[in-house]
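Session log. Operator J.P. requested a structure for one protein chain; no other inputs attached. Running the standard single-chain path with C-alpha cell output.
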Amino acid sequence: MSPRIGHINFLNVLPLNYGYQHTAQDLKIFYGVPTFLNGELEAGRIDLSNISSIEYAKQSDNLLILPEICVRADEDVTSIILISRKPIENLRDDKIILTSKSATAQCLLKIILHEGYDAAPNYETRAVKVENPIDDDATAALLIGDDALYIYLNRPKNFYVYDLGKEWHKLTGRQMVYGLWAVRKNFNEPLQSTYEKIIRAFEFGIEHKADAINSVLPTKPFSFEQLNKYLGNVIKWDLTAEALEALKLYYHKAANLNLIHKDFALQFANVKD
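Structure written below.
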C-alpha cells in the first residue's frame, strides 16, 4: 500500500514541494496547515507527514521521527512573529490572539513570555488576518507562515514586531526546531523507498531553488531576493545533533509549563529496511 503523506505547504518547505511536483509524482500527497495534518496523522488518515515539532511530544506514543530532516532556524526565523500594540516587556495580563495554524508557535510564545518577560497573558485562539492582525479587543497577536513573513518584511506603523526565533535565541542561546517529519508506529509497510523519495525530492528542490522560487512569485507578495534569503539562509532543513539538543530543551521548557507531558523519549524510524 502506498503511504499517505501529509505536506504542510508553507514557503518554508518550498523546495520539498517543488521536488514533490517534479520527482515524486507517484506519492500520495495530502496538503494542509500544521494543526489539520497533526490531527489527520493522529486519526490515522495519513501515515506520515511534516508536523509541528510540539506535536511529536503530544503523539510520541504513536509516532517515530524520520531522521536527517526538519525545519529549523539558527536565530531569526522571520515567519513566526508577535505583533503588538505595546513593547513586549510591557505585556502582562493582556489579551493575545493565537493563530490556530501552529501549536509549536503557540507553545514557543508562552515559554518566551513566561520565562523571558514574566508575563501571564490571556490567550485566545482564533483566526488571525494579515490585513488586520490585531483585533480591537486584543493587545497582540501571533502569526506564522507566509502571513508572518509578509508582516516581518513590511512592518506596519505604530506596531511592534517580534521574531520568536530571535526571542528564543535571546532566552536560551539555542537554535529552534519548528517542524519534524514523523511516521505512525503502526505503519507496517517498508519505509525505505518512501523515505528515499522524500529525501531526493528535498535535494532536487534545494538544487533547483531558484526555479522553485520563480514558480511561486506570481502568487506571492515577495521578491525573489526575499525568498532566496529566507530559504536556506534563514530556514534550514538538516536535523543536526545541535538541533536535537535544542529541541529537547524546548520540550523541557514546555513540560515545565504543563504544555506537554514530561515522560517521553525521541524515537527514530528505521529507514534502512
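Operator note: Residues 80-172 form a domain with the D-Maltodextrin-Binding Protein; domain 2 fold (CATH 3.40.190.10).
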